[in-house]
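Reopening this one. Same input as before:
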Amino acid sequence: MIWLLAFSVVASLLGSLRYKAPAAIAGSAFVVVAGIGLGLAWWQLLVCVITLQLSYFAMALLINSAR
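Same output, byte for byte:
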């Protein structure tokens, strides 16, 4: 199950690079490190990372549509 979390983190980081969002990379890394430190389960970390990435994706869409 750890490979699923690792895949999710790598995929979200690659997606962040695609949209030129360094804050999303730092945010994902912080969520994973903090979650591991707090003893969260892998699926809780996965939900946190996916939620964070979706919020950055939504912000990027809003910013691009405003231009």
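So the earlier flakiness isn't reproducible anymore. For the record, The chain has a mean pLDDT of 71.
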